[in-house]
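STRUCTURE REQUEST FORM
Protein name: Epsilon tubulin
Source organism: Kipferlia bialata
Requested output: structure tokens
Priority: standard
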Amino acid sequence: MHRHVDAEGTSLPPSGKVQGLKARAVLVDMEEGVLNSLLTGELSSLFDQTLYLTSTCGSGSGNNWAQGYSEYGDTYHNTMCDLISRVLEPCDSPQACLFMHSLGGGTGSGLGSRLIEVLQDECPSIARVSAPVLPSPASDDVVTSPYNSVMALSHLLDSADLVLPFDNARLAAITDDAKARNRGRGMGTRKPTQRDREREREAKGELFKGMTSPEKKKKASDAFRAMNSVAAAALADVTASMRFGGELNIDLNELAVNLVPFRQFNVASMGMAPVPGGPSPRSIPSAVAAAFDPSNQLVSGAQGGLRMATAVFGRGALNAGSLADGLGALSGMPTPLWAVDGCKVGLCSTPPSWLLGNRTRPRYGILSVSNTSATRGTVSAIHAAFHKLHKRKVYLHHYLSFIDAGAVADAGQRVLDLVQGYEGLERSGGYPQGVDPEAAGKVAPLIM
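Status: completed
Returned output:
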């Protein structure tokens, strides 16, 4: 995840004394402003400023997947290959690459899809894990995001080994719940203050009324910072075993293998307990159960369904025995016979950093990752928004400047196939189309 460097940024042997750290990361955005703010911000020392890619004109991808994928993908193909090589070549044993990108705009969806395909071609043995952010229909200000999301997702289904999506709507709901909980905890019987009234207006969506542009920008920045903190906490849990010690380690390549029983179904959902700002579980079993609760899921509509594969990450003051007691929560989930024992467990002795220093919080956290047929709910909503535009050919001409109409239709069908495939799995008890359950081993009724 990081490499050791001296004061001048020169790489040091892994066994040497740590003087500084640089993330093994490539930063990509076709708008210079975004990267410049990162490279001059509070985390600037963490990133190597020679390992980033931006457009020479800095105009971005125009919220157009096709422009990011085709135009910029072709233009910067060799540059992307070079950046990937520079990051991977010093590694003794690279396991996986984690991609963090948005699907609503043009660069994250289009060039992000292309970059994953470049890695697939150049380094096929390295696992590719995508952590995309899905746009929220309620607050999305990009009218073409349904096209971008479906085009990107259709490519991720074929080029990524595992897709771990975040949903802006769920992230916003989690942070709003945390704010409401803190308000309730702090109010008591005292007289409401101006700040209390401001928080109430914020909860009702009225806070921006009468504000100047800088004030609105500051409030929006704070909201996105809180949402990003939840996503970052989840990814920190996923990668904790690669950075800290523990009883049972899980590498990213293991996660991709264990959570994808069928190649065409490679989308999994995550849940956390506790979530930042959320209530503290009273015990480890209750924390495990809470990690699968709908209120703690990081994508909308992904709860329930047929559980085909599951991973549970435990961090902090817990052990294999205490976590095993908590896994009884899985017994109430519909499960095909072949997946009854299909739970991958990871244990890291270091608790999540955001729990440290808070004596009222437990010293442990749980992250669940599940591949269930309920994933179709999230994907179906994305496809429905796409179909609403595509059937009327609205905004389609922007994409036809870079790709043909057939590619757009094929992407929509690919995503629809995923939705229908998950529905078929649920009906058949966990067997994809073309597999005879009886011939495959007498799949009994679902284990409950």
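Reviewer notes: The first strand starts at residue 2 and ends at 4. Confidence is low (pLDDT under 50) at residues 186-199, 442-448.
Form closed.
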